[in-house]
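=== RUN LOG ===
request id: a7f3
mode: sequence -> structure
chains: 1
length: 228
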Amino acid sequence: MTGRLGREQLEELRSVDSPTVANAIEAFKVRDDTRGFLGMEIRCLTPEFGVMVGYAVTATADSTTPGRPRRLEGEMRLLEAIATATKPAVLVIQDVGPKRTHSCFLGDVIATWSRRLGAAGVVTDGGIRDLAGILPLGFHVFAAGSVVSHGTFNIVEVGVGVEIGGVRIRPGDLIHGDANGITTIPLEVADRVYEQCRKVREREIGLRDFAHSREFSLEGLRARLLGR
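=== RESULT ===
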């Protein structure tokens, strides 16, 4: 499959936590098990919203180069990309400025615009601000942290491949995230991932139940894990 999922399929994926999705993807052998998920430097700042699922709208941004003017043209290109993207959309913004620890690429105003245009959340290796204003929107935020100033915010490029948390993300890639972090879902197996998630859950529940049973033993566990 290389197309987009239907609403019901997206809701199914939204009902599953991201670690289970990551485990399910491994069964298809479409990528190495060490790839496809973001590192711990990208934190979920809105865990109360549960699972985020959506298609990447990508951009690079710079808010920390001194002396440059702020240009709104890039910002408008990004908003136009959200408006025309497959929904739900997820902003994926890579910092390309000189001082990532001071970068800021989203506040409550841009989050409001993005939400109205069909974005479910943002993933960035830079910073955000105005979290108290973002929370009422139900807008998911995955970022390196928060800062107080937007600096000189400029969107540099829109609709390009970006690298966030060690993962290359292209426009239209399927993103799945929750309090544990972010994984991408390869589109070629996306329509089969939920069924595999059910199998992962069934196996894990069985292993946990066995651990709590009177029959539990190391030998019994070895037999279940290794088949002998």
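=== NOTES ===
The helical segments are 7-14, 18-26, 72-84, 108-116, 131-134, 190-212, 218-226.
Residues 190-212 form the longest helix (23 residues).
=== END ===
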